[in-house]
Amino acid sequence: MKYFSFFAVSFIAIGLGYLSAIQMGPVPPLGLLLDPSHGFWQNSYSEDDLAREEIEIEGLSAPVSIRYDENLIPHIFAENELDLYRAQGYVTAQHRLWQMEFQTMAAAGRISELVGEVALELDRMTRRKGLGYGSEMGMKFLIENDPETLSYLEAYAEGVNEYIESLDQASLPLEYKILNYRPEPWTPSKSLLLLKYMTDMLVGDRDLEYTNLRKILGDELLNKLFPEYPEEVYPVIESGKVWGFEPLTVEKPDSIRYPDDELLLDPLPQPEEGIGSNNWAVSGSKTKSGNPILANDPHLGLNLPSIWYSMQLSTPAYTVKGASLPGALGIISGFNEWIAWGVTNATKDARDWYKVTFKDQSRSAYRYGDEWRDAEVRLEEIKIKGEKKPFVDTVIYTHYGPVVYDRSFRGDRQDTNFALKWTLHQGSNEQKTFLLLNQSKNHGDYLDALDHYVAPAQNFAFASQEGDIAMRIQGKFPLKWEGQGKFFMNGEDPAMEWEAYIPNDHNPATLNPERGFVSSANQHPVDSLYPYYVFDHTYEHYRNRRIIAELESMDQITMEDMMKLQFDDYYLHASEALPVMLDLLGENYEKSEQAEKYLSELREWDFYADPNQKAPSLFITWWNKTYVELWKNLSNSKSPIVLPNNYQTSKLILREPEFELFDHKETPQVESAADHVKKGFEEMVNQMRKWESEEGDYSWANYKQTTINHLVPQFESFSVKNIYTGGGRGIVNATSKGHGASWRMIVELGEEVKAIGIYPGGQSGNPGSRFYQNFIPKWANGEYLNFDLRSEGDLDSVLFTTQLTPSK
User: Do the strands 277-282 and 293-301 form a parallel or antiparallel pair, or are they unpaired?
Assistant: First the structure.
């Protein structure tokens, strides 16, 4: 009972919060929670307290050894892959069962089962986007095309279920007790659903907003504010690359008729702005050791339990280590004896919207060209906690995909219907990509593995012991004519249809470029010489330039250099925008004592967003206030729109401070960028004065208040607040208030592979365990854990060992 006092305080806080948080649904039976034999007291343990030397499970063909290192990272040694994945399922469930199930229930649109009617609209939206349908198509694909992968998924599920069956009320993870439900059996489709959930997290579109902007601004002004190839594009695949293939051709229609509706509906939820990832690999020609080095740090929401779970998986054929996703097989970002790989989001538009014209109110048929096509009806039955009858939602599917908004769902916002076409809805086998990467030995194996990958589009960085480095932008990408999918399209017109898909070997890729490195940070994938149309609304403009500039300047690179780069706090956006803002401000401001103090701190700033610095707090507040003023005309639009990004805004205030849209039409005077910079400065001074009077310290860490929330935000006692760390959006160390580097990994591929890694959390999903959040201080300071591959002999004196044996 080492963590009894922590747990008691946590329980009291959670209990009070739960009782007052009506939105969380029915109150749990507190008597059961307080029961000393079955309640929360039974969760006040660390995993080594309850370690068992031997556990019998069904289905194993041979014993499996699991050795836990000092950080509770399991090293699983199995004789074959079926036993390996069965053991992975069992071990992952031991430490992350509630997280696994909660995430898949969210992906399936089943949160109403846990918290009641308050989640019904959320569940309806999830179902209407078609995540469950996509998982079903994935299962159909596996059944018809890949029984081997399906058998591995089944073994994993059986391992999870072995653990579930061993649980009594006392040993249930705490969240089950608080929310008052029990785990249900795991299935292979849940593993696929988890991967669809990740796709939904990482993919967005702005078709609605761009459609509205086109009407408001016209094509010329739209292209000025949102250029598809702005200045200073440093693409993922090096500029000037000669493509060694004959591209497929696609004809743009002679005339394009876009839907002309007044669109007032809410857009789908989008990935949070500024979220992305970094990866890079440097060749031996640039390293001190002569060995390639690969680095990866995916940027996602910071949650507890962490989105990642670290482990090593070994068979006689290979050993792989890195970060796994609880619920999915194998390692997602990691390395083995021969290669390393890492992923970042490729941000390529893979979702399009089509206006559907139904024949009549029955919606049984819709127009396509000169014919009426039959629509399909999918009934979504949503169970609701506390209700006897489920809610049944009727979702219409066209050949494009599901009709998300219609007369029965947010129909008051529009009088038309739009179908969502998305590669997620197509049968695919992303799981096989990672299973093959886990045992790949060279560049050829890596390419073969990626051929199975469809969504979400990812930049796969690669390095091998043979000395190769590579990058490939992988996904299933529609063959589009220029501009296709940027705006809402007319579903009646077959010319709006995706004609085909770009072949895998035409996807942008590079191998051993002359510059000696590959890198991606969610920027433009290619330059304008790439022969296919490429578009997305979220390309990054700062992290990628900083990484490329640093890698170009480096020589004799070491792993320590890569650590510093992953934790780099240089604020490139501020270094480019602040001098312009100071110049526009000039001497035309109220010269109070505090204004002078703030200006002095800004002028002396070295542009590093370190946790103790005060200038980053001043800059981001000043920039945000100015940004609101600059784009007030556009923001006042009744229809949903997207505003120009920070990069384009910075260029405009530098080069066109008198830009027409900076003038507020409702005022008699003509405003310029200088007026908005001045007003933004005055508002910054007032806000910071208030902050100082109420909070005191406005150093960057205290101001941005990085917080790692529990997956249920109301469970505040299971969260970690106000972490002392630097970085921020648009910075290589992209740690903002609730997002950032969810996993940092660096691997050097010499004769003996060297690796380090860290993530913000801990291996355990149990808030009462000392392994629940123990990595956070190291992560916040830019420190790492030793992640070298370890043999059974290297693990004799570790935390504990468990032997999984076949049931007798």
Answer: antiparallel
The model's pLDDT over 526-544, given as tens digits with 9 standing for 90+, comes to 999 999 999 988 899 999 9
Residues of each annotated binding site for Ca(2+): 349, 352
Could you give the CA distance from residue 685 to residue 788 in angstroms, rounded to a whole number? Answer: 50
pLDDT value, residue 272: 63
Q: Is 277 a catalytic residue?
A: yes
Q: Looking at the structure, do residues 21 and 117 belong to the same domain, yes or no?
A: no
Mind listing the pLDDT tens digit for each residue in 696-727?
A: 999 999 999 999 999 998 888 999 999 999 99
Where do we find the tokens 């580097």? 741
C-alpha separations of 230 from 226, 539, 645, 729 in Å? 8, 10, 11, 20
Q: Please give the residue range of the domain that contains residue 33.
A: 1-44
Find, among 794, 791, 786, the residue nearest to 747 by Cα. Answer: 786
Amino acid at 51: A
What is the value of pTM for the model shown?
0.94
Q: Round to whole Å and give the CA distance between 554 and 546.
A: 12
Q: Reduce the secondary structure of 120-146 to three states and give it as a string.
A: HHHHHHHHHHCHHHHHHHHHHHHHHHC
Same domain flag for 40 and 53: no
Average pLDDT for 348-361:
92
* 674 shares a domain with 644: yes
**Residues 640 and 581 reside in one and the same domain:** yes
One domain for residues 31 and 124: no
Residue tagged active-site, from 191, 277, 283, 428: 277
Q: How many domains does the chain have?
A: 3
SS3 755: strand
Q: How many CB atoms lie within 10 A of CB 253?
A: 12
Q: Mark whether 182 and 36 lie in a shared domain.
A: no
